[in-house]
Amino acid sequence: MVPRSVCLTLAGWVRPAAAPKGTSPERSLGSSFAELLLLPGPSEAVGADGSPFPRNRLLWRLRESVALGDRFSDIWDTVSLTSRRLILLFYLAFYGFLAALFTFTMWVMLQTLSDETPKYRDQISSPGLTIVPKPPGALEFSLNISKPATYENYIDAIKEFLREYEGKKQEHLLQCRNGTFFEQDNIFPKKTCKFSLETLGPCSGLNDVNFGYPDGNPCIFVKMNRIIGLRPQGEPRIVCAVKEGTEVNLATFPKDGRLDLMYFPYYGKKLHVNYRQPVVALQVQFQSYNQEVSIECKIEGSPNLRNQDERDKFLGRVAFKISLTQ
Amino acid sequence: MSEARLGLWSSMTSKVHSCSGILWPESSFFPLSQWLYDHRLSTKELEEKYGTNILQGLTNMRAAEILARDGPNVLSPPKETPEIIKFLKQMIGGFSSLLWAGAVLCFIAYLIEFSKDKSASLDNLYLGGVLIVVVILTGMFAYYQEAKSTNIIASFTKMIPRNALVIRNGEKYEIPAEHLVLGDIVEIKGGDQIPADIRILTSQGCKVDNSSLTGESEPQFRSCEVTHENPLESKNIGFYSTTCLEGTATGMVINTGDRTVIGRIASLASSVGHEKTPIAIEIEHFVHIVAGVAVSIGIVFFIIAICMKYRVLDAVIFLIGIILANVPEGLVAAVTVSLSLTAKRMAKKNCLVKNLEAVETLGSTSIICSDKTGTLTQNRMTVAHLWFDNEIYQADTSENQKDQIFDQSSATWTSLSKIVMLCNRAEFKSGQESVPIMKKIVMGDASEAALLKFSEVVMGDVIERRKKNRKVVEIPFNSVNKFQLSIHETDDPNDKRFLLVMKGAPERILEKCSTIMINGQEQPLDESSVKAFQDAYMELGGLGERVLGFCHLYLPEDEFPDNYSFDVESMNFPTSDLCFVGLISLIDPPRSTVPDAVIKCRSAGIKVIMVTGDHPITAKAIARSVGIISANSETVEDIAKRLKIPVEKVNKREAKAAVVSGMELKEMSPEQLDELLANHTEIVFARTSPQQKLVIVEGCQRQNAIVAVTGDGVNDSPALKKADIGIAMGCAGSDAAKIAADMVLLDDNFSSIVTGIEEGRLIFDNLKKIIAFTLTKNIAELIPFLIFIIAGVPLPIGTIAILFIDLGTDIIPSIALAYEKAESDIMNRKPRHKKKDRLVNHQLALYSYLQIGILQSVGGFFAYFTVYTVQGFKPDLLLYLRPLWENDSLNDLEDSYGQEWTKYQRQYLEWTGYTAYFVAVMVQQIADVIIRKTRINSVFQQGLFRNKYIWVGIASQIIIAVILSSGFGSIPVLNFTTLRIQYWFVAVPYAIVIWLYDEFRKLLVRHYPGSWWDKTMYY
Questions:
Q1: Domain limits at B420?
Q2: Which of B695, B875, B901 sits opposite A124 (nearest CB)?
Q3: B365 and B513 co-located in one domain
Q4: To pair with B859 at 20 to 30 A between CA atoms, which of A307, B393, B719, B880?
Q5: Which residues of chain A have a CB within 8 Å of the CB of B1011?
Q6: Single pTM value for the model
Q7: Residue B526, Cα to own-chain centre: how many angstroms?
Q8: Least confident of A75-89, A175-189, A300-314, B852-866
Q9: What would the DSSP string read from start to end of B896-921?
Q10: Is the ipTM of this complex over 0.85?
């Protein structure tokens, strides 16, 4: 009493029956690919020339499947062509609606803003300091007196920077009263105070068109970032000090590196069209060649201008290096 | 009516069994040759073969030698995947590999930067580290969840150490069963589990319960004679792990451990491969879609970035961002938690889930192959019908048997009840006074226990009544007599007669009677009453019930005075010309909740197939009474009987139902089986062997069905393993079944499966919602990178912020969706089609990615532009500002208003932008979680506040965002800033649009079912 058929069953067709299951994911992928190549689309069962597999459609499907990824295509393939056209149409309309919605909300948002002043100045409560000219990359000047090419660019940059301050260009500007804010909240158009290059002494470029570079006394200009409505308290000045290196003298112009209050507040690009930013010139007078100095300039004398922020190295201060060789 | 059926009481003879044909195959699984002869060998030959002595047993030394050679007598546990492999699988499976790739790219990017500039920013290094932490944490989390659910089961499978009574050196020892060796002589008694495969040497009324092996619910006699050439059918073999119900026996151990029959079946189970769960396949499919989208967009934009003359390093960083944005990092955790929440919920409803993924499998089940005994039935013999006074009365077979409504006024009943009560050796175990009758443990045979409980319920206090009717003498049942007899004093002090009561196989009882009691009056047994008896016997037998006949005789006082000495051996009392009183039929009745559950399965489109080791007639009767074969459907045989034509002439297509025995199944080719499964909606398989269960399950799986198999016996374990979901019985189930199963029914109740199915379907729907919710914001995280690359604007959202959305704000809401109630009656729809009804279909992907996702991105960008504009950078200026914006040495970048910004100030603004975008996505995800509550119904139909967890989720989103934005987030690497209050509300209009749009979508889907919109927009 040995039931043979069961033995056969177990040995024979159990395994083959189980085998396709294990491989089904791969097979489904494979079969979908086969369908892709062989099956015509549902609405175009027969091509124009009567051939069962229209070529263009085939290519289209192939391309689409590549674009969407094979996995995606096997669900996408089930969507009929008419349905696909409707889907395209729908998305056109839907995105049209989205674009309109976005435009509308942006428009509403812009309506609440003024063109002249930004609503908030949360991130720029205190200004940063920057220098002109600016070496590419890190702030490290490497000057060689005997090679003008090492500083010609700097001189050009300074000239470009100071062009705005030339006497001719400031002719129509006001000569303001020193030491007080130039308040003009209710005055339109806003007027601008003159910044006289003379105050920059040897760095003014009036006498030395090379700003001391060939002589080993390079001029570097320190400016404070413009911030609308900023009113520095006290008497802000830019104080520079040598951090490393000894045989240099530093001279700042105007005297003590003062930033006159008459240049504040700033009213913004649109209202304050000809605004001239106050500048402090720093002349680094090398006593000997072949040395490197690092210098740090800070805003001082004004309690509301910060100069010691751990994370922002340019907030109220700026540090740079100059190496001078012969 | 089959002869075998009518003689159920007599079925303990070998005759019935020899033709019953449990199919024990001799295949590679069962090399019977090894002990083919053990049952035929004489005791002498056995002693020689195993080098033992029947009386003295083995010597201790010899036993120790054999133990050392063969190993202990235990089943080797199934090979478990090592924990470390399980853990590693979680680490590299699914999205983890993408994240690993992202992390590696981060490190490469950092190394490239570092090699160029020693002071390179550590951001990439941090990000790589964070990614690895994310992968490991989510992996560990998933592993923990898995392990937690597995541990519950582990406690189940801990075997109670069993002892065996063994004779060694001529003395009896009690030793742990695992120390048994070949040739040991063991003694077993009622209540013991047989400690190994044994050849019976002596037997005193030994009966075993082989149901865990063969599914037969009737006790089997064991004796020392060879009754069958097949050792598995022969009565002189006792099988490991079966239970000795009563009597005693001694036997010689002929197989131990894995070499026992049970051991072989268990190893068959472990050789059956386990299929991937449907949800695993679905999730894999989904992972492929997402990974495909991530990788293809990543590569496309990598190429675009290179073409736009970005540095390779930057292009790599973009690639990282794109991958990161595309991968739903939190999804694995959310899915695992949802599944384990459902598992918990199911455990409360008595479905204990071993494998988390099985939670969903139950929901997609389309065929349930249910075992009969214990699952559909109560697994205890119960009085079903009574026949007296020429009438069949129905007894209450429900679980408590409280409502016995049959006529108890007849004098015949009084007599019958007395016989039932007295002619019964079963007793309640002592110390169970407070236990309800039905739960009391009874010592004795199943039928006798049923009758005892029945009389206890109907008459009360059987033991006291038995005391009043003192038993004088008795003849226990034996297979030759086929009756049981006892003689009692009566409880009437004035009546000095003795009462002889007898029960047994109805035809044998009738033979011994000359009169029959009708309405309390003895009447001669004439032709018409015999006819009535035959009809009743046929009818009850046809219901698949075991029928017993009862008769009595008052012995005349003059012949049998008080002091008469009855002798069992000489039978000095009459055993003929008795008075026939009635019939009682017994059945293992269906559980009362099962018919309802079967109907529910039907309406849920699930086919319920009964697969049992029991007789076809019993199986069919139970199938009919629980609705597996519905009232109006017929089998081929039924049609043949009705039309009075031969079975061969019946059109098989007309028959909805089919009852197939193991013998018939044996003859079937796979094609025929397929045809059978496809063409009949109501199928019962009877007399099936373990291998055939496997064949049936595979046949169902060939129909593309997802098959659930229930079972309790060791014989079920291969099928349990093979099934898509194996369901073992928690109370009656064997350990082997529990190990092989994915789920354990704690109350052994079929209707618990239905609640399980409901939960499974619900979680599938809810997983859809969870995935739709999660995928949506991926687009909102991705688009910023694309715009960043193409339009050169400052980066709208950072990678860390993306991680905080995926693993922070979005986690709890997505889990909350798992608590969502069903939208409609999920038990009224068809089970999902394995291939067609996918978890993530193109509707879901397109709707989430290209509609709501894009909408969210637009909302996010609106917030982003608002922040920049309000602070001074108008959108037009931002376009292609990137080279200047990111230039570290440019510390006086001019904004739209002529103000100048240092690099750090811009950086800080960028972080504010991240935060604003983050908050915008968070706000829109609130709308998203609300719309995802439903897929077709309006959120208001579903009840906005019914699922409280959604609101917990929304609160968590807001709280996490607030915490990040206020203080905590200012930790350097995290790059969150404190936002002005109004920025929190910038995206609210978009959130409202999302809600309104989705309500509009659902409205159209509801109103135009089957339309293009429905097909495209319903996911």
A1: 383-579
A2: B901
A3: no
A4: B880
A5: none
A6: 0.79
A7: 55
A8: A75-89
A9: TTS-EE-HHHHHHHHHHHHHHHHHHH
A10: no
